[in-house]
Amino acid sequence: MDLMRPSRFVSLSALVVVLLLLAVGTAAPQSAPAGPARLAVTEATLDNGLRVLVQEDPRNPIVAVQIFYRVGSRNELPGATGLAHFLEHMMFKGTPTRGRGQISRLIEQNGGRDNAFTTKDVTGYYVNIAADRLDLVLGVEADRMRNLLLDAGEIDSERQVVMEERRSRIDDDPEGVIYEAMSSLAYVAHPYRAPIIGWMADIARINRGELRAFYDTYYQPNNAILVIAGDVKADAALAMVRRHFGPIPRGATPPPMTAVEPPQADERRLVLRKEDAQLPVVNIAWHVPNYTSPDAAALEVLSTLLSEGRSSRLYRRLVYEKRMALGAGGEYSYTSLDPTLFWFYATLLPGQSPEAMEQALLAEVEQLKREPVPTEELERARNQIEAAFVWQQDSVFSRASVLGRYELLGSWRLLDDFLPKLRAVTAADLQRVAQRYFVVEHKNVSVLLPAPAAAAAGATGSR
Amino acid sequence: MSRPGRGRLLAALVLAVVLAAGGEAAVPLAHRETLPNGAVLLVAERPAIPIVVVRVSMAGGAVRDPGDGAGLANLTAELLTRGTAHRSGPELDRAIEFVGGGLDAGAGRDGVTVTLSVLKKDLPLGLDLLGEVLREPTFPAEEMTRKVADIQASLRRAEQSPDTVAGRAIGPMMFPGHPYGRPAAGTVESVGKLTRDQVVAFHRLYYRPDGASIVVVGDVTTAEIRQALLQRLGGWTAPATPLAAVPRPAISVPAQSRTITRDLSQTTVLLGRPSIRQDDPEYYPLAVATYVLGGGSASRLYTRVREEKGLAYSVYAGAQPGRYGASYIVSLQTRTDAVAEAVRLVREEMARMGREPIAAAELDLAKSFLIGSFPLRLDTSGKLAGFLGAVEDNGLGLDYPERYKERIGRVTVADVQRVAAKYLDPATFSSVMVGK
C-alpha cells in the first residue's frame, strides 16, 4: 500500500510531468512573509565529490533519504533511448551482497517505503523510514552506487516489465501518446524529443554492455547528490555518510550533454487520431527559457495565473464562461535543466471543435500580449505561489526533493532567490514575456482526435 | 523501479483510508470531543508550520443515492462550492484562491468530505467560507447545468482509462443489489436525469452535524478552533428525520466474469469479491495475508508475476475497507498474449495462501512492515487529517493505532492460512478483463 506514487514521475502525460516540476519548484525561503524561517541546511562535499545536504526536522520520528544522479533521458542517444529509466529499474535487481528484490525487502522489513523515478534531467531513489534506520539506508545506497550486478537474465526479465510499463503509460493512453508526439515535434536536435521511458524498439534492444557503460559513466559519487531530511542530527548523519560513501573512489567526470536545440523557423503542427480517445485535446507549446533566464520568474507567475485553481484565467474563460473545455491550463517547468516548453492545453467538452479551441487559446495568448493583467490576478498568483512554499515545508519528503532539485541546478541556495524573484514580477513583465516567447517562431500545435487512426502509427506519433 | 501507484482504482471502488497502522507510544493522536450539535471535533495541534487543514465529513456519500439516482451524492458535493447565500461560485473561488487556500467538497462511497486548506493567517476567512458552503449553499440552476455536463464529459473521458472501465464493471459483480455496486459518480444517463430539487433535498438530509466529524490539524489550539467553529456552525442542527441505516452488503456472492473488448496492447484484469471491515477480528490476519500475497515489492505476486516472469508492471492485491462493507481486489495489466499465463499464476498464488501455511520469515516481514511503517502514514497535516477522519467515521477509536499494532503482532501462521482460505479463494472472485 504504497502511499507514494513516484511512478508518476516517469509518466509522460503532460500534466503529470509538469506538475511534478511545478511541485519541486516550491520551497521555503527565509523571507516568506507568511512562513517560518527555512530550516537550516548542513552541506558537505566528500573527497570523492559526493554532495551531501542534511536538514534536521524533529517533528516526526522519520527521515527522508534521497539520492539524485545527474542523469536522465537528456543524456541518452538516438537508438538507445530509455537507458536511464531501464537502469533505474535494474537498481533494484541486486548487488553481490543483496540479491534481486532484497533491497526493497530490507527497507520494508524496517518499516520503510522505497521507490525511484526518472525524469528528463535526473534519476532519483528515495526511502522514507523511521529515523533510527538511516544507517541501514545509507549502506544500501552506497552499495548499489557502484556494485550493481546487472545480471543478463534479470535484464531480459525486467525488459518485459519496462515494456509493460510503456504500454500502460503511453501506448494505451491517448494523452500519453499525444504528449510523446508533441515532444518529438517541438525538439529536433535536443534529446528532450525522446520519451523518458524510451521508444519501444530501443527498450527491446538495449543490451547489458550499454547498461553497464551507462551505469559506470553516471553512477559515481561525483555525479550524485544525497539529501537527508528528518529527525536526525546533522553531525551524526554526516559521519554515517562518510563511513558508507567515503571509501568509494571518485569516478571520471561524466561527459557534458552538448546538444542545443536550434531556433525554430516556423510553426509546427501535428494531428493524431486515436480510436480509444474519448475527447479531443488541443496543445500549444512554445519554446521558452529555463530558470537561468531573467524571464523565468515571469513565466512561472504566468503559469500559475493561467492554471492554478478555478479562478485561474484559462479555467474561468474556457471551462466556466465559454463552456468549451472540460479542463485547461498553461504549464511551465521553471527548474528544467535545459530550455523548455510552455504548454497551453485544453481537453474539449463533447461537441466542441478543436479548431475553435485553438483559436480560443490563441485569443488568450493575444490578450496577454495586448493587455496588462489586472492587479488582483497578479496578486492572487503570487499569493498562491507563496502559500505553496509554506505548505511544501510540511513534508520532509517534499523538503528533501526540493533541496535536491535546486542542488541539481547548481546550488540549493538558489531557493532563497526564488520568492524574491517572483515577488518582483510586474504586469508589464508578464506582457513582455508573452510578447517575446508566444510567437510563431516558437510555436508547436498538437491535436488529439477521437477517431479511427488514419494509419496504425499511433504509438510513435510524429517520429 | 517505479512501482505503479494503485490509488486511483482503489479510491474508485471504496473511498476509505487503509488503516495499516502501528503506533509509537500511547500519546493521543488528537483531542476529541462532541459538540452540542452532535458533531465530533478532533484537533491535532501542529504548531511548527503556519498552516491549517479542516476536514468535515458527513453522511452524504454515494450509499445514500436513490436507486434511480446514481451520482446524486457526487453532484451535490460538486455543487456545494458553486454558490452560497452570500457569494456566487466564482466569488467563492476568488476569495479562497486569493489567499492561496483551497476549499473543496467531494463525495465518496460512504460519506462526503469538505476540506479547507489555508494558511493560519487566513483561517478566519477560510472558516467563514467553510461555514457558508456547509450551511447556506444555493445550488444555482445555471451552475447545475454546467456541472452535469462536466461530470458527463468526465465519465466519458474515463472510458479511455482501462482501470476505470474495469473498476466500474466489477462493482455490481461484487455488490449485487447493494449501493456499493453502483457507480459513485453515476452514469451519463443517470446524472442527466437528476434534478435540482433532488440535490437540495439530499443536502438537507445528509449534510447534517449528527454523525459528522470535524477534524482540524495544524497551527491552532483546541480552544481557539472550538470557539471559531461554534461561532460559525453553532446554529447547525440535525434535521428531525433520523438517518436511515445503510444495509450491509453480503459477504458471499456468486462469482461472475465479464470481458470488455477494447483495442489496446494490454489487458487489464481485475479479480474482486466482498470482504471484511476493520472491526472484524479477522481483518488483522487478512492484512498480513494481503501483504504476503500482493502488498509490496516483497510479495508473492510481485515476485512471481513481475520479477521472475516479467509479465506485468503493475500487479497487486489489496482490501478496501469501508464503513458498511469492504471489497478485495487483485489487479494486473499485461500484454494480450500473456494474459492466460499471468492470470493462472495469480490464481495459483491466491489458492496457495489458503492451502499452505506461509513461512515464518514471511510472517515476520509482514508484521515488521505493517507495524513499522505506521509513522509514515501520519507525517503531514493532510495525511493526519485523513487518518483521523477515517478512524472517527469508521468507528475505530483513537486507540486504533495501538490496537492495530497489538493485533497484528498476535497474528499467527495458522490465522493467516485460515482467513486466506476463507477470503482469498480464487473461485470466489469475480473477474473483469478489459482488452483485446
Give the SSE layout:
The complex is a heterodimer of chains A (463) and B (436).
Chain A: H1 14-24, E1 41-45, E2 51-56, E3 62-69, H2 83-90, H3 102-109, E4 113-118, E5 123-130, H4 134-146, H5 152-171, H6 174-186, H7 200-205, H8 208-218, E6 224-230, H9 234-245, E7 268-274, E8 281-288, H10 296-307, H11 313-321, E9 325-331, E10 340-348, H12 354-370, H13 375-392, H14 396-409, H15 415-423, H16 427-437, E11 443-450
Parallel strand pairs in A: 2-6, 7-11
Antiparallel strand pairs in A: 1-2, 3-5, 3-6, 4-5, 8-10, 8-11, 9-10
Helix pairs in contact in A: 2-8, 4-9, 10-13, 10-16, 12-16
Chain B: H1 7-13, E1 31-34, E2 40-45, E3 51-58, H2 72-80, H3 89-98, E4 102-107, E5 112-119, H4 123-135, H5 141-158, H6 162-174, H7 188-193, H8 196-206, E6 213-218, H9 222-233, E7 257-261, E8 266-275, H10 283-295, H11 300-308, E9 315-321, E10 326-335, H12 339-355, H13 360-372, H14 381-393, H15 400-410, H16 413-423, E11 430-435
Parallel strand pairs in B: 2-6, 7-11
Antiparallel strand pairs in B: 1-2, 3-5, 3-6, 4-5, 8-10, 8-11, 9-10
Helix pairs in contact in B: 1-6, 2-8, 4-9, 10-13, 10-16, 11-12, 12-16
